[in-house]
Amino acid sequence: MEYEIHGPGQRKVRQWVGGVDSVQALYMALVNIPVDLRGIALLLGGTMTFLDSEDLKFPPPL
């Protein structure tokens, strides 16, 4: 499964995740997305928050 994060600006992050089935691949994507978002924020010198909280409401890693 592949996902992309677009922005800010022309920035684009494309990642591939896999799993033993589609549900596991989806879960792995949902676990990896906040890592990518925080990485983008760090590169730009900012932080990533959701409703003024650092908890982005994605599922935790197992």
Give structural notes.
The protein contains 1 helix and 2 strands, in the order ββα. The protein has 62 residues and is of the alpha+beta class. The protein has one domain (1-62). It has a two-stranded antiparallel sheet with strand order 1-2. β1 (2-6) and β2 (12-16) form a beta hairpin. It is flat and about 35 Å long. The model has no long low-confidence stretch (mean pLDDT 93). This is DUF6968 domain-containing protein. Residues 2-59 form the DUF6968 domain. InterPro entries: DUF6968 (IPR054241). It holds the Pfam family DUF6968.
Please give a handful of descriptors for the protein shown.
single chain, 62 residues, alpha+beta, two-stranded antiparallel ribbon, 1 helix, 35% helix
Average pLDDT over all residues: 93
**Total E-strand runs:** 2
Which structural category fits the helices and strands? alpha+beta
Distance between the termini: 19 Å
Radius of gyration: 12 Å
Strand order in the largest sheet: 1-2
Amount of beta strand: 15-25%
Pfam family, one: DUF6968
Protein name: DUF6968 domain-containing protein
Organism: Polyangium mundeleinium
InterPro entries: DUF6968
The gist of it:
By secondary structure, the protein is an alpha+beta fold. 35% of the residues lie in helices and 16% in strands. It has one domain (1-62).
Architecture blueprint of SSEs:
Elements: E1 2-6, E2 12-16, H1 22-43
